[in-house]
Write a structure and sequence with these properties.
Hypothetical protein af1432, 0% strand, 190 residues, 67% helix, mainly alpha, binds fe (ii) ion
Length: 190
């Protein structure tokens, strides 16, 4: 129910396939982490799916406009805080506090980098991507330059994790959820 409501809202504000796929990817990765760490996967998933809700229509008010949109849809203050905190130091001054918020902060840009690196592979997939190859791509700052290495590094620091742990866990999360995302994306075309 909650997931359906969130997905409907996502499609209302996002028409660009790239944005929808990013939302579904971050949803899947957040759910994977919640399960790993023993949290509520459905709840973390909703946060992941809706984190960029306002970006397509209000790119200059990202993480700001979303407050009104979510309030009007009766989302709780906790959901709103979690979503807005991924813009910490970029568009807002809302610091990630909860472990979930720190993970969202760390994986948001990282999923973009992993997705771009996957596209470059002969397989076009994350399924055969090794940590070593991801680390190489991470160091090449001109590669997927829009994915901020600084934000990813800060995310790992907030979590108290080695950067390698964040990279390898997120890679694993994307590996195990890639097929389901591709299925959902092709369902959208039907
Ligand atoms: Fe964002
Ligand atoms: Fe994002």
């Amino acid at each position: 129910m909650e997931r359906e409501k969130a997905f409907k809202l996502l499609l209302e504000y996002n028409k660009d396939k790239f944005h929808i796929q990013h939302a579904l990817t971050v949803e899947a990765v957040m759910k994977w982490y919640a399960k790993e760490l023993g949290y509520d996967a459905d709840y973390w998933g909703i946060i992941g799916m809706l984190h960029d809700l306002d970006y397509e229509m209000y790119p200059h008010e990202h993480c700001i406009k979303v407050v009104d949109i979510l309030k009007a849809e009766n989302y709780s203050e906790d959901v709103i805080h979690a979503i807005c905190s991924h813009g910490y130091g970029i568009t807002v001054d809302i610091k990630p506090e909860h472990e979930m918020e720190k993970i969202l902060y760390g994986v948001d840009e990282l999923t973009g980098l992993i997705g771009a690196a996957a596209k470059m592979r002969p397989s076009g997939s994350v399924s055969d991507m090794e940590l070593k190859s991801l680390k190489k791509k991470f160091k090449v700052v001109t590669f997927a330059a829009g994915c901020s290495r600084d934000v990813i590094t800060k995310g790992a620091e907030m979590l108290g994790w080695d950067l390698d742990k964040l990279l390898s866990d997120t890679l694993e999360a994307m590996r195990s959820t890639e097929n389901s995302i591709l299925t959902q994306m092709s369902d959208l075309d039907q």
